[in-house]
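Example 3.2
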Amino acid sequence: MKKLSIVAFCVVAALAANSCAYAVNDLLAPKSEDGKKQWTHFFTPSLRTRVQYDDNCTSSNPKFKSWESMVGPKMAFKLPYEKSYIGADWEYTNIGYAQRPGDKFDNNHDVNMTLRQDLSDRVTVGVKQFFQYKQQPYVYRQPIDDLQGNRSTSSEYAWMYAFTSPNLQENADYGLYDATIGVDYRMNRKVSFDFTYNFERLDFMQSSGIVGDSLTYNMHTFMTVLNYRLLPEALFLMDMRFVQGDYDDIGKDYQAFIIAPGIKNRLGKSVIINGRAGYEYRKPNTKGPRLAIPGQTVAGDTEHGKNESHEPFVEADMTYLFSRATQAKIGYKLKVQNTEQPAYSDTKVQGVYGALTHKLTAKTYLMFFASQESRYYYDYRELEANLCGAAGPFEPHETITKCGFMVTQQLKPWMFLELGYRYIDVHSDFSPLGWNTGFGDMNFASDKGTAMNASYTRNRIFSGINIVF
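Structure, written as tokens:
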């Protein structure tokens, strides 16, 4: 399950990086005198191709190195009107792995749709829908005998497979659906309200490979934001949210209420700050006892699952405009969020991130990015302690560090060259089986090379062409 959490994290990061790439290309596109792109049409197809080298294509320890190819066609439709907007796009991505164990191809589909309508000078209604369909490949547990993933027959590890699948991930597809309906009401020149309902569903079509655990969930979020303009450049916010999480996995259901005042402010011509800081109240809604095996707990045995929790909620960022060609952004977050670790209902997350964009020439952009996120889990698994001799509560922690850069060069008005590098370092107290690896003589991350440890590093370098017709 740890790997599934990292896969989900990497998926989000990949989508963000691709979005940045398209944004850079949009900035480089030639403009006419009225500021519009000369080749903007109702229908805009594009094609992205890449070749990359990945020194850890399975995000595991030990590593599996592989050359990879990527082909990604995209079609976008736009219908802007005076008081309404209709937009939709579909993107297909096929990634082939030359040396990855198991499945050699990933096939992904992403669909976005946006509708917006001004009902009056004061009221705007909007709908956004996002659907993502992705192939989840096999990722083998260790130890394995060869690149075909044949399981070790050693009796030293036979007991582990009595509790779980020999694969960290099964070969299964999953779908993510996200829909948002919002109403903006402008009461007067100083006061406005944003009312939003969001529905999110993650659906794994097959078992995730962990006994007694399922990642499928439905998430309902109701949000109201009060906006009050203090000054021409300063906006006060009062953010209030109610969240209902319904999981197929027993013991993960919860309700949460968040209240977070904040501010959006522009300081001069160079600095933009945006921040919200408040409080989260979270209450578990357990359905009954869970299956008690190593890595699993009876519902309510986690710190956040046993009692109602009261946690800080902080989201803040600052953008600095050095010049028309250079800008930087830094951010910070501190909050409780859901986790796919089977023995925990949630985790406390603290993270920082930053990005720098610089226009080297009229046709060349350079982007750097970096982030670090720490996740804290609180749990005491009595059964595991009895089996493995661990003393006292096990409170694991993991840190995820990411950084990289991308250079985009406009070759033609419709053609862009991309070159980039990405690095990720995961330091985790979990093993791939989902529980602590540090049990004295039973330390699975031993000197035998089995590396039963969820910590890993990954380096990727890529180059490709993006064509916008």
